[in-house]
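User: I've been trying to design a sequence by hand for this structure and keep getting stuck. Would you show me what you'd pick, starting by listing the structure so we're on the same page?

Assistant: Good idea, let's start from the same input. This is the structure you sent:
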């Protein structure tokens, strides 16, 4: 079976950074589905895992945490799917990635592919949708869908034009929130406005200065999708007393947690891999969540966020996708595969 991975941690411009690799055929057991992969997406986590260690890897490192495809075979405990079903999912960081002809995945983190999306486009939606949904409605104190408890609440999203931000803006508006988004380039400003942002501020400037241009000076919650440490003071400056901050970006070094004490601010992390990595009691929630996202996409309530498609699924196109992510200038999502 063919997969695409790396045997050597090296710069993505090196042709050895991602190469074709032969791995043993896979067989599903338990809750696993064997998936014929049609398309994948590349996310920042792919590049981080690919570069996780210097020097030689301990065996082939196969990344990839977004996929769409067709169920080929099922394990003995599977109840949600059958061979032939078209699905999409974000995978499990503790297992081999999706960059392969075939892939094993737990059915409980999988859903049927949106009917209105082809395989390429569908592959760009799972990881960002799960991350945004869990951050907004599991970590931050908001209710899913428009709800009276959300009325009048203000949310700040830092880096709204990236993959997660592009979905978070739409889900936040669907929930009835007032959404302020940060962006710094004309094209990213226009992108987040088109997604529904109420205001856009420049994250290259101090937030307290940017907020002086707005009719309010604090927000109820902040979703940080870029450089948690760099924005730590910015977030404290504009968070409402007893507000909530959620981040998906590692700090990587010491930070002054005391800074947010005076406002009794709640800080939390979001990692969409938690449920699958630890097989939590509520792991099935990701199946339910992706099923809901598919319905929202099919009904046009939210729109897909893929902006770059590379075909077919091969090492060269995966390297190109990684380059785009590592450039730090990607808007929306990049996908690799076939329709």
């Amino acid at each position: 079976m063919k997969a695409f991975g790396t045997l050597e941690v090296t710069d993505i411009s090196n042709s050895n950074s991602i190469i074709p690799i032969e791995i043993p055929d896979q067989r599903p057991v338990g809750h696993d589905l064997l998936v014929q992969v049609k398309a994948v997406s590349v996310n920042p986590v792919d590049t981080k895992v690919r570069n996780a260690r210097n020097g030689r890897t301990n065996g082939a490192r196969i990344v990839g945490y977004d996929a769409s495809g067709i169920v080929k075979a099922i394990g003995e405990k599977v109840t949600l799917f059958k061979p032939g079903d078209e699905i999409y999912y974000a995978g499990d960081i503790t297992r081999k990635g999706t960059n392969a002809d075939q892939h094993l995945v737990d059915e409980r983190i999988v859903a049927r592919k949106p009917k209105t999306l082809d395989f390429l486009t569908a592959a760009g939606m799972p990881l960002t949708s799960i991350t945004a949904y869990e951050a907004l409605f599991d970590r931050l104190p908001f209710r899913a869908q428009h709800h009276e408890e959300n009325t009048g609440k203000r949310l700040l999203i830092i880096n709204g034009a990236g993959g997660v931000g592009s979905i978070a803006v739409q889900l936040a508006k669907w929930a009835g929130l007032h959404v302020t988004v940060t962006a710094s380039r004309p094209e990213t400003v226009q992108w987040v406005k088109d997604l529904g942002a109420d205001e856009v501020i420049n994250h290259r400037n101090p937030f307290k200065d940017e907020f002086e241009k707005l009719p309010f000076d604090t927000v109820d919650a902040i979703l940080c999708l870029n450089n948690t440490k760099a924005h730590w003071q910015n977030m404290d400056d504009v968070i409402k007393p007893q507000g909530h901050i959620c981040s998906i970006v590692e700090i990587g070094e010491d930070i002054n947690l005391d800074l947010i004490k005076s406002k009794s601010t709640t800080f939390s992390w979001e990692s969409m891999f938690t449920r699958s990595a630890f097989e939590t009691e509520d792991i099935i929630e990701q199946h339910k969540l992706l099923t809901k996202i598919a319905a929202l996409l099919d009904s046009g309530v939210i729109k897909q966020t893929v902006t770059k498609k590379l075909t077919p699924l091969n090492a060269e196109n995966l390297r190109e996708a990684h380059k785009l992510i590592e450039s730090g200038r990607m808007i929306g999502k990049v996908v690799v595969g076939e329709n």
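That's my pick for every position. To get oriented when you compare it with your attempt: The mean pLDDT is 95. Residues 285-299 form the longest helix (15 residues).
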